[in-house]
Amino acid sequence: MAAVAVLTTAGLLSACSYGAKSDDKASAAPAASASGAKLSADTVKIGYFANLTHGTALVGLKQGIIQQELGGTKIKTQVFNAGPAEIEALNAGSIDIGWIGPSPSINGYTQSGGKSLKIISGSASGGVKLVVNPDKIKTLDDLKGKKLATPQLGNTQDVALLNYLSEKGYKVDAQTGDGDVKVLRTDNKVTPDAYKSGSIDGAWVPEPTASKLVSLGAKVLLNEKDVWPDKKFVITNIIVSQKFLTEHPDVVEAVLRGSVKTNAWIKANSDQAKTAANEQIKADAGNALDAAILDPAWQDIDFIDDPLANTLQAEADHAVTAGLLKKPNLAGIYDLTLLNKVLKANNQPAVADAGLGAK
Description:
Elements: H1 7-10, E1 27-29, E2 43-49, H2 55-62, H3 65-70, E3 74-80, H4 83-92, E4 97-100, H5 102-111, E5 117-126, E6 128-132, E7 147-150, H6 156-167, E8 182-185, H7 191-197, E9 202-206, H8 209-215, E10 219-223, E11 234-241, H9 242-247, H10 249-268, H11 270-285, H12 291-299, E12 301-303, H13 309-322, H14 337-345
Parallel strand pairs: 2-3, 2-4, 7-8, 7-9
Antiparallel strand pairs: 1-3, 4-11, 5-11, 5-12, 6-9, 6-10
C-alpha cells in the first residue's frame, strides 16, 4: 500500500479541478450574516468550486440554509479552481471543510498517511458525459483513431475514459494518451475552442463543459451514469480537516445539517435552486451560465447525501488498472458518524462507508 507520492508530478487525482492547475488562486466569496448563539468555533472556513457539481454548497450558501444551522458561528468561504489547491488549503488550516471531488480526496488522504482529512458526506452524483462531433463519430464503435479530450492527466474523467476504452478493447498509453484512441488532456476552459477548431473529435467532460459542447453542435454519445450500477457515482463529496472534526464536532454537524437540508430543498425546488446556484456562480466567477447550458447540465446532476463509498473505491481501482495509481490504502477515509446522526434525526436511513470507515 503506497502513499502515492509519485502522483503529484503526474497531476493525478486532482479530480474536481477539471483541468485547472494546482497553483490557481482561491478567492473569497460573500456569505450570509450569522445570528444567534455561537457554536464551539467563532468561524468555520468552507471551500468549494463555482461549478454546478458543487451545487449543494452554492445553493446552501446563497439561500442561507447552512448559515442558519450555524447560528452565530460565522462562515468564511474560499472559492477554488483546483482540487490540489483546496487540499493544500485544508492542510494549511486555511479552510476547515470543503466540497471537492473524489480524486483529490483520495490523494490528500493517502499522501498524508491518512492523517489530513475525512470524507464526511456525499454531495453530488453524475454530471459527466462523452460528447462527440456527430459528423466524425456516430456510434461507440467509431472511436478508433479519434481524438478525445479529458480535463487533466489522471483526473476523475481521464481515469473514467481510460477505463472505459480498456473495457472496450482499445489500447491507450495512460501517460502519453497515445494508442488506438488519442486522449488529449485539455483544460475545460479551452476545450470548446478545441472542438470548434477540429483539434478534438469529442470529450469526456463534466458539466457544464459537456452542455457547452452540445451548444456548439456536439452530441451526447454516452452519459457516464450508464456505465455505473444504479446509474450513480460520486462526483462531489464533503471533506473536513481531522483536527477541526476533533475540536469542533458540533460545527461539523451543523454544516452537515445544512447540507442535508439544502439537498432536500434542491429536490423540492429544482428551478429555484438552479437559479440560486447560477446566481452564486455569477457572484463567485463573474459570469452566470446561459440557460441553454445551465438547464441540461443541472438536470443531469443528482444532489445526494450518500457518499457512494463503493464507487470511490471503484474509481481508485480504475486508476490502478490504468497504470496511473499505485494501490492506495483507503481504510478510514470515511467518518459518516455525524452524517448518519443527522439523517436519523430527519427519519432518513443511514448511509454506508463500504468498509472504509473510521476504525
